[in-house]
Amino acid sequence: MPDAADDAVYYVISDLHIGGDEQLEHVEFLDELLAFLERLETTDEDAELLINGDAFGLWEFTGADGPEKFDILVETYPELFEQLRATGEAIPITLLPGNHDHELAAYDEYVERFAEYNVELVQTESTTRPVGDRTIWFEHGHQQDPNNRIEDFGNPDATPLGYYYNTLVTSRAGKLSDRGRFNWLKDVQAVTPTERMPNWIVSKYFYREMNPLIRYAAIPFLFLFNVSAVLAVLAGLDLVGLWSLPVTQTEAFLGQFGQAGATVYLILSVNVTIAGLLLIVGIPVSFLIRDARKTIDRFGVFETDLTVDPSEPYEDAAREVFDEHPETAIYCYGHTHRPRTTEVDGRLLVNTGTWLKRLHRRDVIAGRLPPVFYPSYQLCAVRMTAGEDGIVVDYQGIDKPNPSAEELTRTERLLTLGREPDPSLPDRQIVAVEDD
């Protein structure tokens, strides 16, 4: 008789971050999530749905405590909980706590309340599922993140650094977002890693909140800053009589275009003057800024190569799991919001991504303008099951229109022309399982 695990199909989603103060309560993917749950309700597969952490943004509820947040969730999203109840009657639904909803592991009442909606809440850091004679290891992944690690898992008073960030910054952003020229601050949850926050704030201020007259006046200077800095040096050489050819050729070239050339020359002249003054002042200041930035980078406050999307902690954690539990073929986690697969020692790391908006940083094509953060959705459920050649891992995308047309200004799109992100999902992977 074949093992039941050979027919098991696991659907995995994570990082929904449903709920929060004021603007954070809006779930932009709610229709897609309901449709996905409805599809699972009618499946004829031997399926199970695992929600691998951060299903809810409980840290972002600052006006309620403990299990009373559950009542707010049910009241705010009645359709979702009724659909969970219906889907849970057809297939098992398992929920693991993440960091944003860590308190699910701290109160037994949550287990009872979710059970009313046919959701099994597992109050542990990880769980496993069989596939043939191998297993899949599931954990949210925040325990590998020093800023969000819960040292005393299950303690309702556990407050890692990430807790304060989300209760003080993220929650506050939800309360203030609708005061802007554009309701953008609520997307603070989509900024990952958090070290990108300063760059994101500067970008949105410049392209969305800055007075348009100031912005349009600054763009030519910032866009042409690199060119202007070079011309400022050449102009200096011309003034001291060392080399006048570049300036003379520039004047002659622009003079061919009449009034248009004169206008460009005027803009360049202003830019060159400002750039020259900045170069004179900036040389000594640059040494001070460089030294200060090195100090800041050591503390990981801003985005650096060391702070962005660290994969090494998860690879190390997976190796430990594979060594201690050799039957494990897949280490499945979330938390970083980046759907990806990585092969480690013949096994597979699987990141389930997020249902939140993704923000992809893109530098502008020239100048010293702030970067642009392209929004996209990569809604997906990771399907895992046994196949003829091993365990099949398949990212099943869920269509949702790209929001960049509505959320990016023409200026942002023009300055990043040809640099648009490709929010595609990882290809299907097969983890070969050798016979013992």
Give a short summary of the structure:
This protein has 436 residues and is α/β, with parallel strands linked by helices. It is 40% helix and 17% strand. The strands form three sheets. The chain has a seven-stranded mixed β-sheet.
Question: Overview of this structure, please?
Answer:
There is one protein chain. The chain has 436 residues and is α/β, with parallel strands linked by helices. It is 40% helix and 17% strand. It is built from 13 helices and 14 strands. The strands form three sheets. The protein has a seven-stranded mixed β-sheet with strand order 4-3-2-1-12-13-14. A five-stranded mixed β-sheet has the order 5-6-7-9-8, covered by helices on one side. A two-stranded antiparallel sheet has the order 10-11. The relative contact order is 0.13. The model has no long low-confidence stretch (mean pLDDT 86).
The average pLDDT value, as a whole number, equals 86
The residue fraction in helices comes out at: 25-40%
Low-confidence stretches at least 5 residues in length (pLDDT < 50)? none
Number of helices, where a helix is a run of at least 4 consecutive DSSP H or I residues: 13
Structural class, from helix and strand content? alpha/beta
**H/E topology pattern:** EHEHHEHEEEHHHHHHHEEEEEEEHHE
User: For the terminal residues, how far apart are their CA atoms?
Assistant: 19 Å
Rg over CA atoms, rounded to whole Å, is 26 Å
Q: If strands are numbered along the chain, what order do they take across the biggest sheet?
A: 4-3-2-1-12-13-14
Indicate the proportion of strand residues: 15-25%
The best one-word shape is elongated
* Strand segment count: 14
Main sheet: strands, sense, barrel: 7 strands, mixed
